[in-house]
Specification:
alpha/beta, about 45% helix, 5-stranded mixed sheet, single chain, Cytidine Deaminase, domain 2
């Protein structure tokens, strides 16, 4: 049993970012927004060599974790594409479950964030594409709201 994942469950969170004894960032929001918020509010140098504890890590999240050069990633669910990214970027990882593909919340198609980075291997390009994707989805939500 992974102590970091246990803390995530115990505190009812979806994301915790730690560095040493300090908790840098926490969020109970789902999706890519918390990781993007952490990057945009804390900056790359503050997040470098951190430990990321995320409920679900797909390729999109793995690219963001790689973008700020985290030391480790711990999660409940890890996708095979995410595992490839973490291994290529030499980031240690722990997961309880490995799944073939990250699906959307309805389970009907590949997650829109995963689709946005299917052909991306560069973490910086991943960050840029995911930032644009989040803005476009947020616009859609506001238009519907």
């Amino acid at each position: 049993m992974d102590g970091y994942v246990e803390r995530l469950r115990r505190e009812g969170l979806n994301l915790i970012i730690l560095k040493g004894d300090e908790t840098l960032f926490t969020s109970n929001r789902e999706g890519m927004r918390p990781l993007l918020e952490a990057i945009n509010s804390l900056g790359l140098s503050k997040l470098r060599d951190s430990i990321v504890v995320d409920k679900i890590i797909g390729k999109a999240a793995a690219l963001l974790v790689s973008y700020f050069k985290a030391e480790e990633a711990h999660c409940v669910v890890l996708s095979m594409r995410a595992r490839e990214v973490l291994e290529r970027q030499v980031i240690r990882y722990y997961s309880e479950r490995l799944i073939p593909e990250m699906m959307n919340k309805f389970g009907t198609d590949v997650c829109p964030f995963e689709k946005a980075v299917l052909d991306v291997d560069d973490p910086e390009e991943g960050y840029e594409r995911l930032s644009v994707k989040l803005k476009s989805l947020m616009g859609d939500v506001k238009a519907q709201g």
